[in-house]
Amino acid sequence: MSALPRGKTALITGANAGIGKEVARQLALRPEMARIYLACRNRDRATTAKSELEAATGRSIFDPVVMDVADLSSVRAGLAAIDGSVDALVMNAGVIGPNTMGLTADGVTTSFATNVLGHVLLLETLLAEDRLGEVAVFVGSEAVRGVPKLRMKGPSFVSTSADELATVIDGSYFAGQKPDFNLAFGQAKYIGALWMGYLARHHPDRRFVTVSPGNTTGTGAASGLPLPMRIAAKYVMPALGLSHKLDVGAKRIVDGVTDPALSSGQFYASAANTLKGPMVDQADFLPDLANPSFQANANEAIHRFIS
């Protein structure tokens, strides 16, 4: 048996730009990483990202995979193109904006499909096929608790039952009223964090961590927002010291992959009333996140939409 450490493999969704691409760059600088799959919707953009990452890191370990996490059939096809197992999965692809509230072919909002549902199918298929080696990181958001500075309300449910959570997934939560895409984004990330907690309870041999990059500049996260919000994200918040740089936000996610001190089932993000700085366990002030019943309800609601 070789005494050399086994090369590590990672799969990152939304890896052609922003947080995902920077996570790929930082992971590639770690000598134990031997292969990084760049899962992207567009092959040309993925190929461009591969070339840029090779130039930035001096390593030829990047492998583009076409995968649109908003489309379950695309997730299945992308998985079929991946050889063997992956040691680390980073579920980074996400979307927010007024154009994300329409329904996909799977009967869920584009917001939920992109942020959560496709990742559920991706991770659970890897688990079912025994192809996840060590850790899965779900990219969360401080929107889970609300962001008063941005006038974003946090998710608030009457019962947090599976039936109630399912109304978020299919968009009927906003029936008879104008959909609040900011709230829907926070609700999706909330349900995703609960689901990760559920998996952690049922798969103690692996690590399932939710990590928010915090309020980060240099990403495309605000590209789908109305113009005033894009201006605030790009110029106002950095000027006020309310955001950090891309490498800092991405390092949080890399820490989720590489630091065993970040415990399975936990959701790590900025401290209360902040959008950057040291990360803390969000259950310290949002105890619902650690509620086993709510976690099970989230899992049940999600699986009503996966066939």
What labels describe this entry?
disordered N terminus; Rossmann fold; alpha/beta; 307 residues
Structure description:
The chain is of the alpha/beta class. It has one domain: Rossmann fold, CATH 3.40.50.720. Helix content is 40%, strand content 15%. It contains nine helices and eight strands. The protein has helices spanning 18-28, 43-57, 72-80, 110-128, 162-169, 181-202, 227-239, 246-258, 292-303, and strands spanning 8-13, 33-40, 62-66, 86-91, 132-139, 207-211, 267-270, 279-281. Strands 3-2-1-4-5-6-7-8 form an eight-stranded mixed β-sheet, sandwiched between helices. A hairpin with an 8-residue loop joins strand 7 and strand 8. Helix 4 packs parallel to helix 6 (181-202), helix 5 crosses helix 9 (292-303) and helix 6 crosses helix 9. It is globular and about 50 Å long. The model is unreliable at 1-5 (pLDDT under 50).
Question: Brief description of this entry?
Answer:
The chain is α/β, with parallel strands linked by helices and 307 residues long. It is built from nine helices and eight strands.
